[in-house]
Design a protein that fits this description.
- This protein is mainly alpha-helical.
- The chain has one domain (about 35-124): Winged helix-like DNA-binding domain superfamily/Winged helix DNA-binding domain (Arc Repressor Mutant, subunit A, Orthogonal Bundle).
- The protein is about 65% helix and about 10% strand.
- The chain has five helices and three strands; from the N terminus they run ααβααββα.
- It has helices at about 10-30, 35-50, 55-60, 65-75, 95-124, and strands at about 50, 80-85, 90-95.
- Strands 1-3-2 form a three-stranded antiparallel β-sheet.
- Helix 1 (about 10-30) packs across helix 5 (about 95-124) and helix 2 crosses helix 5 (about 95-124).
- The protein is globular and about 60 Å long.
- About 20% of the residues are buried.
Length: about 120
């Protein structure tokens, strides 16, 4: 079996590019004490809050377990909190005023990363 065609694997190339893009966002957001996923969670809550955890996971393309871990960290920092829910089985999340301040301060750094990626994509 000749496996030489796997050198040009689209799946591997996409994952490699995704890691490169993530590193760029992480570099820009690091001075603000945020990881790329944390920024995305805060930004999503700023636009849709309060949001059930499962719905937020679907919106962000994350599995519930990963989102729960990240949400717990954000809650520990005081950037998000649980919102009241009519159903005790449903965990709803909301952005706190401190979280809104955090996302607004970090937004210019995110915007820089976004612009750099857009420029890279235009030249490819």
């Amino acid at each position: 079996m000749d496996l030489s065609a796997t050198k040009n694997c689209h799946c591997l190339a996409a994952r490699k590019r995704a890691r490169e893009i993530t590193r760029l966002y992480e570099e820009k957001l690091r001075p603000h004490g945020l990881r790329a996923t944390q920024f995305s969670i805060l930004a999503a809550l700023a636009q849709t809050e309060p949001t059930p955890l499962g719905e937020l996971a679907d919106l962000l393309g994350l599995d519930r377990t990963s989102l729960t871990r990240s949400a717990n960290r954000l809650e520990d920092e005081g950037w998000i909190d649980e919102a009241e829910s009519d159903d005790d089985r449903m965990r709803k999340l909301k952005l706190t005023p401190t979280g809104r301040e955090k996302i607004e301060r970090a937004y210019p750094a995110w915007e820089e990363a976004q612009d750099e990626v857009e420029e890279q994509l235009e030249t490819e």
